[in-house]
Write a structure and sequence with these properties.
mainly beta; 8-stranded antiparallel beta barrel
Amino acid sequence: MVMKQLIKLFCPLTKMKRGFICFLICSLLVTIVSAQKRSKFPSANTTSKFGIFMNTLSLLEPQQAAIGAGLTYKLASRWDLSLELNYLFEGFWQGGDDYTSKGSRYIFTIKRFAKRHIFFYGMDARLKYFSFVDKQHFINESSMDTLFNFSHDANNILVGLAGIVGLRLPISKNKKWAFEINTGIGTKYRVVNRKNIPAGYKYYRHEVSRHYEFNTGQDVDSSDNVYFPSAIRVMYFF
C-alpha cells in the first residue's frame, strides 16, 4: 500500500522536484554517516529548557515558500516538543505562472534523542491552510462542454502526519546556538474547495496538478498521498 502511494506521488514529479527530494534525503544520510565517524563528536545542549528556531529551508521551497519561527521546549532529559508557525507565499517555482497563493502553516513536532542528544527520531504533525487563485479546465459531463483555463478562487486545507529522523549539532562554544536537520516520510490528506464554479461543471484533471490529484466532486476535491517533510533549522537556546 505504501509502495503504491510512493510510486503514485513520485512518478508525476518533474526531474527538478525529484532531484530536490533526493538531495535532502541524501544530505541527511551523508551528514549522519560523517558524524558517526567522528571520535570526538560534541554533545548538544542538555541544560536549556527553552529555545527558538527558524527553518531556513522553507524560504527556498520551490513550490510554496514560507517564513516564520518556532519554539522548542525540553519535556524531559531526552524528549523535546516544538511548535513552528509559518506564513506561506509564492515560491520561485510559482513566479512564472498565473497561480498565486498565500496562507499559514502550523507544525507540531515531538522528538526523542539518543544519549548524547545529537541524533533523534520523532513524529511530525502539521496543519496547512491557504487560499489561491488558479486557472484550470472544467467539464460539463451532460453537455460535454469544457471551460478552458477558467479562473477561480479556492482554498486548501491539509493535515499531515509523518515519522522523522535527524540530528542537532552545536555550532557555538557555549552550545547556545545549534544547527538541526531532519527529514522523514508520512501521509497527508488535503481538501480543496473551489468557489464560484458554474453549475454542472467539474474539475477536469487533464494533467497532474500541483496540489490535488483527484476529481471527486463539483466544488470539492480531496486526496491523500505520501509526503516527505524536511527542515534545516538554526536554533538558539536560552
